[in-house]
Amino acid sequence: MAASFDSDQKRYLQEASKNGLCSRFHNRRGLTASMKQYQGYWFDEFVVPGILSVQEKFRGRSDQIVITSFPKSGTTWLKALLFCITNRSSYDFTTSRRVNNVMDDNNPLLSCNPHVCVPFLEFYACAHLDDPNPNVTLLNTH
């Protein structure tokens, strides 16, 4: 099943092709999606416009933390830990209460995966090609 591009992603890849950025891409069929090789690494095809957008337009802020880890090296745990540390004054991580047998707490880690709380920079950029600069403190990339 190949990933589909929206019109912004297609436009961005077309512009990159005109500028010679995509001329070095090699194609390969992956397990679930078409793959593109870029700068020696293989990526799902739908992520490539986001990567190009980040390389061209991302500007980190001094208050941002970018978690950069190898896949399968404890990234989920690290995201949860850093989310708790950076948001310790925003949420009550020590207590929770039950109302009608349902957890009533505003702590997002009780209801969401850490990957939801700490977004992947490339995926955010895929959805925001013109401005891949999220207004969050924690970001993740592999």
UniProtKB/TrEMBL annotation:
<keyword id="KW-0808">Transferase</keyword>
<feature type="domain" description="Sulfotransferase">
    <location>
        <begin position="63"/>
        <end position="127"/>
    </location>
</feature>
<dbReference type="InterPro" id="IPR027417">
    <property type="entry name" value="P-loop_NTPase"/>
</dbReference>
<dbReference type="GO" id="GO:0008146">
    <property type="term" value="F:sulfotransferase activity"/>
</dbReference>
<comment type="similarity">
    <text>Belongs to the sulfotransferase 1 family.</text>
</comment>
<protein>
    <recommendedName>
        <fullName>Sulfotransferase</fullName>
        <ecNumber>2.8.2.-</ecNumber>
    </recommendedName>
</protein>
<dbReference type="InterPro" id="IPR000863">
    <property type="entry name" value="Sulfotransferase_dom"/>
</dbReference>
<dbReference type="Pfam" id="PF00685">
    <property type="entry name" value="Sulfotransfer_1"/>
</dbReference>
